[in-house]
């Protein structure tokens, strides 16, 4: 988890209304904006609340600094906390910065590989109208994130500040735009040679060979290139600061002046020449003052060496061809914009001339009319009003056309261009984006395969992230494809999983590897079996489970078909009934049917129409085959299993079905009763038992919440996350322990108690949860019988 403050350096970015529009805009993506929260405002709609904030800011007349505070709360790849957890994290971050009572609007974004929250905060207090700016806020973010990671069980991040502000800005440029920065280029190409220099002359020569120059600026040094781009020398390396360089080489010696006189002879006889400047800036020195004819200007052959040029950051994918296309397109935008603006201006001038000429003709016609002066004045006024309206419309149309041209010819960064090309279906651009993420970590709830395939046609493409993750949409289903795996969002339904499996088959083939929790794998196996997909799993255990579910389903379908096709119910000549049996019943002959058949009666077996009650009747009929009655379960062996509606529900024997004999002269004999009838005991019904600690029946919501949380943490720990072992509280006394936080799972409060390198999860009531919320993490406590004590007192 990382919290970052986004500085507002322009007036437009400082506008709270514009910032709200940005963070709440979907930008033609269904997967971008998630939960939007408005805090401490009377209005609930985000844009209405932004206008309310704007009115509050306008009441402070003295503050001259920025009145809007913008932060981003970002999570690690694959982490998706619940909506309640995200809301609590946002509240605690704002409170730690002193903005608990301030107006703010937050929006959760899902359009990147990292789930993140944008928070727009009004720095003006809504009642006191004073401005609040956090002092050294960047120093507070690290400890705050560490505490929240521990409290909400998030993956630990590195919060140690190891880069200067210049290095951080250069890294942001390379990450966002994908273009190598001057600072990064000097570090990679020139820094080893600069460290080997033994004097100012050698140091300056290394810089000159690479088209660079060192200059004094303030109390330090800067390094510039031929285009005037400058970086601090101490940002390149700490040993290049002014103090350390002058300690190594003595007082600063500036590089020699440019020109023929400034050239030096190298030891191998090679002439070291001045670096190349901008094309057309100045002629070569030999012809500098003799521009009579082009033929007289001397040609200077320069060994230019390495030079910094804005190029894509080096990755494992060759982007030279793509970058050439990018530069050609971006250069063409300038000419297109120029021609478009000129054409729009010409069209505007022509429209204005036409409008003025028409108004002039109207005034001439009015002058020739033989009307009175008041009538003519009214006609002149109407003509003038119409002319002003036409001019206003022409100017509005011109502004709209200019905006369209600007949007169409706006220069894009390298990464933005790659995203646009990948979204349009360019596989080379998609591969270039994915090559930036050199190390892809295994992700939870994902489907992978060692092979690759082309993108599936027919499914809607919603977005492509800067790391090359393709987000597909199929209705409400969201599936992320990063090239070698498909990631399904947490909480997705069976339809989403089926869509993901179908997409995986088309992209990767029938052999799929599944990563995730045991619950996720079980759902995948069930969906694969239910949808009868031609698929197999890399995990032998999961594949065996899928085959078992598929075989069970096929067997059930065959049973249903046989029940539907058979005219069951009539006794056969052999005395055995082919009556329909319920699911799970034995295939043995039914003694009751054999007894009636032996008596020579024509008895048909059918249900009475009441749930849980089966009976015998003397009239002929088909079991479940009547057009007026739905298919109903049959009867198994007497005393072997209860009827299906009352299976495993033997608390009240009177609820079971009753066998009724139609004829009074026909009775059951001892030989008709199954010999093991008395040995079949009632099955335990633990669902109705409850324990003090919630460890009894499955109906206990506290137990279900506790087990769910423990299973989730243990599954994450098994996948390599640095998480302490979690265990469900078993009611034993824990004498020496410390407080580890509170969790809320499915509306149930859970307390975390640390002891002996283990965290015990204890269900607590609302009152105890409120008391524990006032405790600090790490405070000593003890647990006895589910009661949590602090400092010898029990609540």
UniProtKB/TrEMBL annotation:
<feature type="region of interest" description="Disordered">
    <location>
        <begin position="551"/>
        <end position="647"/>
    </location>
</feature>
<dbReference type="InterPro" id="IPR049751">
    <property type="entry name" value="TraI/MobA_relaxases"/>
</dbReference>
<dbReference type="Pfam" id="PF03432">
    <property type="entry name" value="Relaxase"/>
</dbReference>
<dbReference type="Pfam" id="PF18821">
    <property type="entry name" value="LPD7"/>
</dbReference>
<dbReference type="Pfam" id="PF22287">
    <property type="entry name" value="TraI-like_C"/>
</dbReference>
<dbReference type="InterPro" id="IPR040677">
    <property type="entry name" value="LPD7"/>
</dbReference>
<feature type="compositionally biased region" description="Polar residues">
    <location>
        <begin position="568"/>
        <end position="577"/>
    </location>
</feature>
<feature type="domain" description="TraI-like middle">
    <location>
        <begin position="167"/>
        <end position="254"/>
    </location>
</feature>
<protein>
    <submittedName>
        <fullName>Relaxase/mobilization nuclease domain-containing protein</fullName>
    </submittedName>
</protein>
<feature type="domain" description="TraI-like C-terminal">
    <location>
        <begin position="705"/>
        <end position="787"/>
    </location>
</feature>
<dbReference type="InterPro" id="IPR005094">
    <property type="entry name" value="Endonuclease_MobA/VirD2"/>
</dbReference>
<dbReference type="Pfam" id="PF22863">
    <property type="entry name" value="TraI_middle"/>
</dbReference>
<feature type="domain" description="MobA/VirD2-like nuclease">
    <location>
        <begin position="22"/>
        <end position="154"/>
    </location>
</feature>
<feature type="domain" description="Large polyvalent protein-associated">
    <location>
        <begin position="462"/>
        <end position="547"/>
    </location>
</feature>
<dbReference type="InterPro" id="IPR054462">
    <property type="entry name" value="TraI_M"/>
</dbReference>
<feature type="compositionally biased region" description="Basic and acidic residues">
    <location>
        <begin position="555"/>
        <end position="567"/>
    </location>
</feature>
<dbReference type="InterPro" id="IPR054461">
    <property type="entry name" value="TraI-like_C"/>
</dbReference>
<feature type="region of interest" description="Disordered">
    <location>
        <begin position="773"/>
        <end position="795"/>
    </location>
</feature>
């Amino acid at each position: 988890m990382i919290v970052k403050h986004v500085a507002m350096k322009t007036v437009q970015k400082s506008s709270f209304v514009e910032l709200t529009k940005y963070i709440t805009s979907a930008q033609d993506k269904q997967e971008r904006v998630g939960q939007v929260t408005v805090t401490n405002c009377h209005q609930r709609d985000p844009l209405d609340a932004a206008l309310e904030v704007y009115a509050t800011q306008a009441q402070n007349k003295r503050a001259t600094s920025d009145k809007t505070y913008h932060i981003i709360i970002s999570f690690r790849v694959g982490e998706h906390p619940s909506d309640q957890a995200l809301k609590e994290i946002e509240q605690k971050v704002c409170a730690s910065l002193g903005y608990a009572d301030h107006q703010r609007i937050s929006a959760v974004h899902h359009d990147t590989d990292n789930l993140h929250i944008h928070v727009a905060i009004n720095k003006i207090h809504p009642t006191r109208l004073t401005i609040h700016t956090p002092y050294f806020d960047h120093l507070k973010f690290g400890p705050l994130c560490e505490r929240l990671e521990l409290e909400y069980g998030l993956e630990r991040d590195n919060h140690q500040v190891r880069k200067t502000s210049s290095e951080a800005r250069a890294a942001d440029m390379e990450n966002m735009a994908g273009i190598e920065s001057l600072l990064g280029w000097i570090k990679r190409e020139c820094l080893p040679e600069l460290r080997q220099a033994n004097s100012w002359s050698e140091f300056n020569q290394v810089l000159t060979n690479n088209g660079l120059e060192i200059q004094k600026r303030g109390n330090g040094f800067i390094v510039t290139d031929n285009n005037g781009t400058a970086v601090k020398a101490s940002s390149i390396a700490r040993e290049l600061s002014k103090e350390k360089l002058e300690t190594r080489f003595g007082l600063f010696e500036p590089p020699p002046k440019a020109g023929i006189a400034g050239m030096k002879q190298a030891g191998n006889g090679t002439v070291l020449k001045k670096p190349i400047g901008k094309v057309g800036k100045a002629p070569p020195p030999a012809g500098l003052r003799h521009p009579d004819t082009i033929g007289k200007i001397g040609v200077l052959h320069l060994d230019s060496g390495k030079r910094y040029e804005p190029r894509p950051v080096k990755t494992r994918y060759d982007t030279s061809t793509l970058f050439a296309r990018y530069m050609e397109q971006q250069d063409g935008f300038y000419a297109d914009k120029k021609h478009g603006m000129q054409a729009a201006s010409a069209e505007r001038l022509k429209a204005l001339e036409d409008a003025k000429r028409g108004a002039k003709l109207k005034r001439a016609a009015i002058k020739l009319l033989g009307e009175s002066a008041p009538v003519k004045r009214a006609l002149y006024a109407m003509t003038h009003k119409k002319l002003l309206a036409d001019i206003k419309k022409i100017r509005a149309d011109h502004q709209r056309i200019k905006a369209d041209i600007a949007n169409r010819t706006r220069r894009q960064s390298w990464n933005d261009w790659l995203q646009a090309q990948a979204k349009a279906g360019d596989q080379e651009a998609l591969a270039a984006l994915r090559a930036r993420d050199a190390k892809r970590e295994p992700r939870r709830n994902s489907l992978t395969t060692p092979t690759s395939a082309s993108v599936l046609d027919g499914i809607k493409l919603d977005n492509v992230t800067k790391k090359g993750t393709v987000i597909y949409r199929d209705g409400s289903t969201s599936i992320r494809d990063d090239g070698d795996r498909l990631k399904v969002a947490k909480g997705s339904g069976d339809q989403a999983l089926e869509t993901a499996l179908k997409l995986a088959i088309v992209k990767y083939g029938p052999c799929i590897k599944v990563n995730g929790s045991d619950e996720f794998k079980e759902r995948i196996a069930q969906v694969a079996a239910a949808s009868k997909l031609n698929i197999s799993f890399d995990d032998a255990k999961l594949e065996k489970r899928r085959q078992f579910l598929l075989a069970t389903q096929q067997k059930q379908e065959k049973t249903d078909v046989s029940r539907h096709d058979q005219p069951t119910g009539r006794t056969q000549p052999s005395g055995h009934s082919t009556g329909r049996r319920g699911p799970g019943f034995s295939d043995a002959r039914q003694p009751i049917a054999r007894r009636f058949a032996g008596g020579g009666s024509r008895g048909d077996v059918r249900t009475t129409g009441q749930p849980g009650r089966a009976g015998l009747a003397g009239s002929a009929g088909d079991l479940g085959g009547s057009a007026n009655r739905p298919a109903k379960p049959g009867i198994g062996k007497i005393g072997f299993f209860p009827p299906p509606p009352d299976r495993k529900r033997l608390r009240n024997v009177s609820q079971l079905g009753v066998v009724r004999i139609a004829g009074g002269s026909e009775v059951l004999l001892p030989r008709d009763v199954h010999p093991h009838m008395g040995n079949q005991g009632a099955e335990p019904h633990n669902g109705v038992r409850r324990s003090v600690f919630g460890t009894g029946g499955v109906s206990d919501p506290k137990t279900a919440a506790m087990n769910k949380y423990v299973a989730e943490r243990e599954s994450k720990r098994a996948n390599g996350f640095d998480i302490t072992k979690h265990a469900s509280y078993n009611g034993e006394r824990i004498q020496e322990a410390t407080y580890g936080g509170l969790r809320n799972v499915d509306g149930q409060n859970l307390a975390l108690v640390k002891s002996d390198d283990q965290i015990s999860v204890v269900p607590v009531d609302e009152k105890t949860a409120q008391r524990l919320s006032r405790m600090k993490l790490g405070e000593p406590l003890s647990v006895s019988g589910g009661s949590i004590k602090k400092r010898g007192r029990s609540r």
